[in-house]
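Below is how a single chain appears once it has passed through the pipeline. First comes the sequence as given, then the structure the pipeline wrote out for it. We keep one example in the README because the format questions we get most often are answered faster by looking than by reading.
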Amino acid sequence: MTLATWITFFLACWAISLSPGPGAIASMTAGLNQGFRRGYFTVLGLVLGIWTQMIVVVIGLGAVIKTSETAFTTMKYLGAAYLVWVGLSQWRAGDRPLVASADAPVLTRRQLVVRGWAINATNPKGTVFMLAVVPNFIDLAQPLLPQYLIIMMSLSFTDLVVMAGYVALAAKVLGALNQPHHVRVMNRCFGGLFVVAGTLLAAFRRAA
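Resulting structure:
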């Protein structure tokens, strides 16, 4: 991979990370309810999900997901169901106080990592995207593993930075959301966004 090729891909990574999606919703929800320091663990999980997607593509399972209607549909509905479940859980949180300063957090750091990982790892749109985009930046005449690592690290870096921004943005409004009805409204807004994201994923169809 030449430097010019990498710069082009790196710029694309920023565009990908900045585009709204389940990862951004998860990051803002974590920042809102957990504060920045704890909420950032969701971002680590999102990056692990990217690594999982990349590994799936590299070892060839991505092609199976793309070409097999059964595999694609199964993964699609699994991801959609998970997003809807997260959304309903957030909605049912009601006016539960913000837990950034609570002694007993609603979600542990491990749970936040797992949630972030599951949101990215179970999204077949990510697999289809990588299968469509990544080959354009791969030089088949050069060793493949270093190129895949560069791509994975570039995606990870931009996601770590951009999603940190989403977490921080949401965490900044914690001080203003000190009334139960504020918390209830925000939990339902983010819960609704997760449900919408899950519904859109369920309706997603591969390009012919």
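The chain is about 75% helix and 0% strand.

See the next section for the split statistics.
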